[in-house]
């Protein structure tokens, strides 16, 4: 987890089930969130890393939050038996220059 090239500890990470609701454009943001459950959460450590363990197979929304920074979400598929894949997340200060991103780490 980085922001402007620096490691970002203390970012709140929330994992919500039923990520498919974000594909339904007829629902408002509040209606979508009401149809989800927060299945797990974590906080990034001093190296900007986090881990979420023991999620059942399915599609999830992973949301990253830190006061004063943009909120960023990614939709991920957790396969049976889990995954060791890592997400590389870049946050930016609210309304600041640059772009937020979430992608699989190389």
Architecture overview:
This protein has 106 residues and is mainly beta. Helix content is 6%, strand content 37%. It has one domain (2-104): Sandwich (Immunoglobulin-like), CATH 2.60.40. The strands form 2 sheets. Strands 2-1-7-8 form a 4-stranded mixed beta sheet, with no helix packed on it. Strands 4-3-5-6 form a 4-stranded antiparallel beta sheet, with no helix packed on it. β5 (58-65) and β6 (72-78) form a beta hairpin. It starts with a strand and ends with a strand. The mean pLDDT is 87.
Uncertain stretches of 5 or more adjacent residues: none
Shape: globular
Please write the CATH class name.
Mainly Beta
CATH 2nd-level architecture? Sandwich
Assembly type? single chain
Instruction: List the strand order in the largest sheet.
Output: 2-1-7-8
Strand content: 35-45%
Put simply, the count of helices is: 1
Q: How many structural domains are formed by the residues?
A: 1
Topology, number of strands: 8
Quick one: biggest sheet?
A: 4 strands, mixed
- The overall pLDDT, averaged over residues, is 87
Give, in order, the helices and strands. EEEHEEEEE
Share of helix, binned = under 10%
**Distance from first to last alpha carbon:** 14 Å
**Rg to the nearest angstrom?**
14 Å
**Might you state the CATH topology name?**
Immunoglobulin-like
**Helix-strand makeup class:** mainly beta
């Amino acid at each position: 987890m980085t922001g402007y090239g620096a490691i970002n500890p203390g970012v709140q990470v929330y994992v919500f089930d039923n990520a498919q609701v974000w594909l339904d454009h007829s629902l408002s943001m509040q209606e979508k969130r009401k149809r989800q459950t927060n299945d797990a959460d974590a906080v990034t450590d001093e190296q900007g890393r986090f881990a979420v363990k023991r999620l059942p197979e399915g599609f999830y929304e992973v949301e990253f939050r830190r006061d004063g920074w943009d909120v960023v979400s990614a939709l991920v598929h957790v396969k049976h038996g889990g995954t060791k894949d890592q997400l590389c997340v870049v946050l930016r200060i609210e309304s600041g220059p640059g772009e937020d991103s979430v992608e699989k780490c190389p």
